[in-house]
Design a protein that fits this description.
five-stranded antiparallel β-sheet; alpha+beta; binds zinc ion
Length: about 220
């Protein structure tokens, strides 16, 4: 499989953050035993469940990754699991996005703040400016310029983010505010859709056109505009 599948909470298979292989994942919960008693006396009495974390174990390398259940975010290994190619993305947007990716394990809140700011910058650069992010998303959706999967993703971002309960998310993007489980990841995926649509695909088309014009030129034919 050539495509890179990003690790996500409770998913059955993805590219393993430990070995990189696309592999099935076994999801585990831990029960505790007293470390000193176990190591010194071989006593392994069950001390109850560890409720805060879940574990994904890769069937390919047996490596374990640790996830915080509350935020559904991976806390170990500390690695940016996202692999979006930022070559064609404007520098200010690429920076916010990259930082939102790098902090997501430790602070989904910080990641969410950065990704909302990045989202607002993209929308405004594309001409969708209004008083709040909510309204800017509405403008973008109403413009009917976006493919339906991107419109749906933007609409869901507002709903998952519960903008009505957190009005600051709407009007002060970049503000560090509570996030719902999965929200920070959703924001990053939505940014990737927008990056692809507004920057990557147009750049590809531009390059294809240049290549075509080169061929036409060599054949003595008029170039396409
Ligand atoms: Zn692995």
């Amino acid at each position: 499989m050539a495509e890179h599948i990003i690790p996500e909470y409770n998913e059955k298979a993805f590219n393993c953050p430990r070995c990189g292989a696309y592999a099935n994942q076994e999801w585990l919960l831990a029960t505790a035993i007293d470390k000193v008693r176990a190591e010194q006396y071989g006593q392994t009495a069950n001390k109850g469940n560890i409720d805060e974390f879940a574990f994904s174990k890769c069937v390919h390398c047996d490596g374990v990754s640790i996830w915080k259940k509350g935020t559904q975010s991976m806390v170990f290994p500390k690695t940016n699991v996202r692999t979006f190619d930022l070559t064609e993305i404007p520098k200010d947007l690429a920076e916010d996005y990259a930082e939102a990716c790098s902090v997501i394990g430790d602070s989904p809140k910080a990641s969410g703040a950065l990704s909302r700011r990045c989202l607002q910058s993209i929308l405004q650069q594309q001409g969708f400016s209004d008083k709040s992010l909510y309204k800017e998303i509405q403008l973008a959706i109403d413009s009917e310029k976006l493919p339906s999967h991107i419109s749906d993703s933007l609409d869901a971002l507002r709903n998952i983010g519960n903008f009505s309960a957190h009005p600051m998310k709407d009007t002060s993007t970049g503000e560090v505010l509570p996030v719902e489980p999965g929200e920070a990841e959703w924001n990053l995926e939505t940014l990737e859709f927008l990056f692809d649509f507004f920057y990557v695909q147009p750049a590809k088309t531009r390059k294809r056109k240049e290549a075509l014009n080169e061929k036409l030129k060599q054949a003595g034919k008029p170039e396409i505009k």
